[in-house]
Amino acid sequence: MLKHNTYFDGAVQSIGYERNSLRATVGVIDVGQYHFNTGAAERMTVVSGELRAKLNGGDWQTYPAGTAFEIPAKSGFDVQAMGGPAAYLCEFLGD
Questions:
Q1: Taking 70 as the threshold, does the pLDDT of residue 95 lie above it?
Q2: Which of 10, 14, 48, 74 could join 25 via S-S bond, C-beta 3.0 to 4.6 A?
Q3: What are phi and psi of 93, to 5 degrees?
Q4: Helix (H, G, I), strand (E, B) or coil at 90
Q5: How high is the pLDDT of residue 10?
Q6: Confidence of residue 56 (pLDDT cuts 50, 70, 90)
Q7: Calpha distance 55→70 (Å, rounded)
Q8: Each residue of 68-93: pLDDT tens digit?
Q9: 8: helix, strand or coil
Q10: Is the dihedral of CA 54, 60, 65, 70 positive or negative?
Q11: What span, in angstroms and rounded, lies between the C-alpha atoms of 74 and 95?
């Protein structure tokens, strides 16, 4: 079953799904800076556009389309879409 998620007054939207018992979302982040907390570990792959991300305690890093970054479980990260909206795939990796 598909689940539509909306965050930050619609500036970040995603569709959640499960395949082979693995959870994932695909979505779009509009221009702006947003903070997310994580329960499970995640891998964010930039599908289109460019994201900047800062993991808790880290520095800002830039991720163009085709690159990915991982966020540990029970932490968080800040993210910015650069130069326009950016699309992503978020795969949940477990605890």
A1: no
A2: 14
A3: -95, -5
A4: strand
A5: 95
A6: confident
A7: 9
A8: 999 999 999 999 999 999 999 999 99
A9: helix
A10: negative
A11: 8
Q: Which amino acid is at 53?
A: A
Give the model's pLDDT for residue 20: 83
Rounded mean pLDDT of 25-49?
95
Query: What's the token pair of residue 53?
Result: 């991300």
Separation of alpha carbons 53 and 81, rounded Å: 9
Q: What sign does the dihedral 4-24-88-61 (CA atoms) show? A: positive
Residues 6+ apart with CB under 8 A from 19: none
Closest CA to 39 of 89, 71, 73: 73
Tell me the backbone φ, ψ of residue 90, rounded to 5 degrees. Answer: -110, 120
Radius of gyration for the alpha carbons in the chain, expressed in angstroms and rounded: 12
Q: Which residues contact 17 (CB under 8 A, 6 or more apart)?
A: 1, 2, 3, 23, 24, 25, 26
Q: Residue type at 27?
A: G
What's the average model confidence in pLDDT over 11-36? Answer: 94
